[in-house]
């Protein structure tokens, strides 16, 4: 199998931004001068979720399944100093290339685990016995494809089981028109924990199923943080749609 081509491309929109490309596909964007600058729309929406996990500035424990250029771990380190984070990434070459160009921020408590996310999150996997997390971020893509196991209730159940009380799972879902992936991953979470509250946010055309794009899917076993839907809707990027409860059921499953 040919080795992937891994490179960084300078950002034309800012003087310090860099985009990680794997075989020509954009995987991550990082601004090493300002790690709070979240360029991709779905990443900014995940950032809003991370901001809501605990009080502003308070350290959290975060698990990132899928590393890329570690944009969100850098964001958490900058916005919540003292946070403890674990990044699971299967591609050792990507990790080596990223760390050579963009080392982990000085003082950040960030552990790297080279493993398949499904294996790491399993009951007897690399994360067995590790203290629970306030948030689990699932962003697992090889080029533009997600592994099939993200649709598996067992995998999503492992993500939910890794949470501390009040914790959240947030998933990046890159979808085609029709919301096939979003429905499958929402179904997996609902089967893993029927009582968990769900929230979906993204561009209105994406959530209507008429255009491809990225949505974020949030699962909260102990209930969504108060004001989270309003926070995401108000903070953008715009246009934005945020669906919960009956509106989410109607978008995913249609009228009953």
Provide key terms for this protein.
8-stranded mixed beta sheet, 9 helices, 31% helix, alpha/beta, 256 residues, 3-stranded antiparallel beta sheet
What would you note in describing this structure?
- 31% of the residues lie in helices and 27% in strands.
- It has 256 residues and is α/β, with parallel strands linked by helices.
- Strand 4 (61-65), helix 2 and strand 5 (84-89) form a beta-alpha-beta unit.
- The chain is globular.
- The mean pLDDT is 93.
Short description:
The protein has 256 residues and is α/β, with parallel strands linked by helices. Helices cover 31% and strands 27% of the residues.
Please render the helix and strand layout as text.
Elements: E1 6-10, E2 18-22, E3 25-30, H1 41-52, E4 61-65, H2 71-79, E5 84-89, H3 92-101, E6 109-114, H4 117-121, E7 133-138, H5 153-161, E8 163-175, H6 180-192, E9 197-202, H7 204-207, E10 213-220, H8 228-235, E11 241-244, H9 245-253
Parallel strand pairs: 4-5, 4-7, 5-6, 7-8
Antiparallel strand pairs: 1-2, 2-3, 8-10, 9-10, 9-11
Helix/strand-derived category reads alpha/beta
Distance from N terminus to C terminus (CA atoms, Å) equals: 48 Å
Question: How large is the count of helical segments?
Answer: 9
Order of helices and strands: EEEHEHEHEHEHEHEHEHEH
Largest sheet: 8 strands, mixed
Give the amount of beta strand, in percent: 25-35%
Helicity level? 25-40%
Task: Give start-end ranges of low-pLDDT stretches.
Answer: none
Overall number of strands: 11
- The coarse silhouette is globular
Mean pLDDT: 93
